[in-house]
Amino acid sequence: MHPIEHLRYVARSGGGDPGDLAREAAFALGSLRADPANLVVASRRMIERHPDAGPMWWLCAQLLVSDDPSTLAWELADVLMDDPVTARLTSALPADGAVVTVGYPPTIADALVGRDDLRVWCADSEFRAGDLVRRLDRAEVAAEPITHDQLPAAVADADLVLIEAAAACDRRVLTTLGSQVLAATASSAGTPVWLVTPTGTRIPHQYVAEVARRAIPDDDGWGASVDDLPIDLVDVVINADGRSTQVGVALRSECPFAPELLRTGIV
């Protein structure tokens, strides 16, 4: 596939794993070998189409400040393909534990598949809990969907709650829809909340603010595609370095700030 057609395919893709989208964009941008001006245009278009995908901001920011963006794009694609956060979460989960999660968080799902000793309760969001239950069933992991009225009891019985970040920094965390209610319920019950930050989701605060502006419309709260999760509801962060209770430190950005991504108009 020609790189430009590949980029169009990524731009048109809806939903799915943000890390997978960023990886496909990396493949396309690496093959495109665009000059700096065209790379800025292509990056802005990717962000426009997927404004709430933290890994896309992470990818484009690094390419825009690189002296060799084509080579770097392939390297970053490899990092996204084998995200170390999955293994860190898999090993950090308690033996024979019970956990609650919400929706279909891709990295959390990948980690849970490797832990058939766990019991997983799946709260629904955007009608995706069923997808997670079916995947875990195939991996012989005990999983069942729960309704909103079952949420308090499940959270109280669980060892921990797992929430996946869409974009995060040490000032603000944006997560899967439904996460705020789940985290608040966990806080009330005294159940620890673990925030999982897949590679590419820890980005500069300027980007997180822009993601929030685009994904949580001021004039239409029903149209939000992410939750704005209060940081004080988070007890543990899982990132590429492992498990940390130093929430602010663990949420520091893992990519540089490229102001070009926030500008509009002429390059």
UniProtKB/TrEMBL annotation:
This is Translation initiation factor 2B subunit (eIF-2B alpha/beta/delta family). The keyword Protein biosynthesis applies. The keyword Protein biosynthesis applies. The lineage of its organism: Bacteria, Bacillati, Actinomycetota, Acidimicrobiia, Acidimicrobiales. Gene3D superfamilies: Translation initiation factor eif-2b, domain 2 (3.40.50.10470). SUPFAM superfamilies: NagB/RpiA/CoA transferase-like. One of its GO terms (molecular function) is translation initiation factor activity. Keywords: Initiation factor, Protein biosynthesis.
